[in-house]
Automatic annotation (TrEMBL):
Residues 3-80 form the Threonine synthase N-terminal domain. NCBIfam families: thrC. The keyword Disulfide bond does not apply. This is Threonine synthase. GO terms for molecular function: pyridoxal phosphate binding; threonine synthase activity. It comes from Thioflavicoccus mobilis 8321.
Length: 462
């Protein structure tokens, strides 16, 4: 399997190089040169596989010859052994809604599904091929701690995580800043998540800096993130397939950077019978407006009760554009140039009609988020986290629905308390964090400040 860039400047890269490259060197995002198809017969065989065996089947064609199959098996088994649930990502019935629980990993959010795997994959590639990796990532709260948990204490890896100061939940902040391993560097940025993501991309686009410091990516710009996230769409379908009796499934996906729902989109393109993908946003509704109007136009970022989705520029939107315009890199470049010049881009009427066939988009504000947490609790006793509540609300009334539960509610107990008057019990991984010592620096959202900090931190290493 080979990978190419959405902007046409990189081609024929194998899986291992795609993972190491992170952002493509032409500024685009790496995508498979051809997507494998899954036949109904294969789906039938996959239906009853346990999560780890299914992960192997889904991932193997994308990994190709870059890793021996036995090594991939070992990586997958080790990555999911850290999950607290034997099924890894179970589907539970809550009233008449199926909830795909993605929060049983070490940091209690869906990011663990990909980042436990990616951390082990980086370690494997470095041990096999040599070299060092200096990870630079941006987080709106969950990627950061999951990435840190994936690589803390690992040889040959340093990790720098930028989070927006004061814009993530207290628990999310502590999950990162209480990790005191020498290879972990937390930065609170005076700015928004979008500022952090812009800086990370600027550092990757500075090719001499990227090469000199051997930068690696843990955000969903890294293809391995999307690949690992595809697995649970197949898994969830397998869990509900008997009940559906041949009807296609609909997924509701709380969306910010568009990585999670994009994985579902690719699963559908591969042949998974998905009727609708419901794109659920909070008040930061740039994607919802795009689906409604065909115009993607940035606006102000609002702080909401689902802060991990307080995002304007969704990284993986570029990957979707690539498929929407018929895998034409020139067209992708033209649309992105328009975006760069004017702050907005517009697709054609025909493309817009396709967008509306691909997604149903719903924006859910904080009041409706709280109402959903309350309603679900009162009718079923189940506590939703605010991001999941956005998805459940957006999917209300849809038949054959599976909602992705992207975080454990105890990560957002301020919102949970406001909704139901009590807190969600915390899993062991979230207990005691507020009493631990922390380490973090505060920087301006300025490329020179971040570049200097990384250079100095790496120079100071023994
Ligand atoms: C809890 C939670 N839900 C949903 C999302 C949105 O996912 P994505 O950015 O892949 O669209 C995020 C952040 O990515 C998150 O942390
Ligand atoms: N919501 C995310 C934002 C980063 O998204 P990613 O999927 O590209 O890593 C977070 O929690 O950090």
């Amino acid at each position: 399997m080979s990978y190419c860039s959405t902007r046409g400047g990189v081609a024929s890269v194998d899986f291992a190089d795609a993972v190491r490259m992170g952002l493509a060197t032409d500024g685009g995002l790496l995508v498979p040169e051809a997507l494998p198809s899954v036949t109904p017969q294969t789906l039938g065989e996959w239906r009853r596989l346990r999560f780890q065996d299914l992960a192997l089947e889904v991932m193997a064609p994308f990994v190709g010859d870059a890793l021996p199959r036995a090594d991939l098996v070992e990586l997958i088994d080790r990555s999911y052994a850290t999950f607290a649930h034997p099924e890894v990502t179970p589907v539970v019935e809550v009233g008449d809604t199926s909830i795909l629980e993605l929060f049983h990993g070490p940091t209690a959010a869906f990011k663990d599904v990909a980042l436990q795997f990616l951390g082990n994959l980086f370690e494997y590639l470095l041990a096999r091929d040599g070299g060092q990796l200096n990870i630079v990532g941006a987080t709106s709260g969950d990627t950061g701690s999951a990435a840190i948990a994936g690589v803390r204490g690992k040889d040959r890896i340093q990790i720098f995580i930028l989070h927006p100061q004061g814009r993530i939940s207290p628990i999310q902040e502590r999950q990162m800043t209480t990790v005191l391993d020498a290879n972990v560097h937390n930065v609170a940025l005076r700015g928004t998540f979008d500022d952090g993501q812009r800086l990370v991309k600027a550092l990757f686009n500075d090719l001499s800096f990227k090469e000199r410091y051997q930068l690696g990516a843990v955000n969903s710009i890294n293809w391995a993130r999307i690949l690992a996230q595809m697995v649970y769409y197949f898994y969830a379908w397998g869990r509900v397939a008997d009940r559906l009796r041949g009807r296609p499934v609909t997924f509701a996906v709380p969306t910010g950077n568009f990585g999670d729902i994009f994985a579902g989109y690719l699963a559908k393109r591969m042949g998974l019978p998905i009727e609708r993908l419901i794109l659920a946003t909070n008040r930061n509704d740039i994607l919802t407006r795009f689906v409604a109007s065909g115009a993607y136009a940035t606006g102000e970022v609002y702080a909401t009760l689902s802060p991990a989705m307080d995002i304007q520029i969704a990284s993986n939107f570029e990957r979707y554009l690539y498929y929407l315009v018929g895998e034409d890199p020139q067209r992708v470049r033209a649309l992105l140039d328009e975006m760069g010049r004017t702050g907005r881009l517009r697709v054609t009427g025909e493309e817009h009609a396709q967008v509306q066939r691909d997604f149903t988009a719903v924006a859910v504000d904080d009041a409706a988020t709280l109402a959903q947490i309350r309603e679900t609790y009162e009718t079923t006793g189940y506590i939703l986290d605010p991001h999941t509540a956005v998805g459940v609300r957006a999917g209300a009334g849809q038949a054959d629905l599976v909602c992705l539960a992207t975080a454990h509610p105890a990560k957002f107990n301020e919102a949970v308390r406001e909704a139901i008057g009590c807190a969600a019990p915390a899993p062991a991984s979230l207990r005691g964090l507020m009493d631990k010592p922390t380490r973090c620096v505060v920087l301006d959202a300025d490329i020179a400040a971040v570049r200097d900090y990384i250079g100095e931190a790496l120079a100071a290493r023994p």
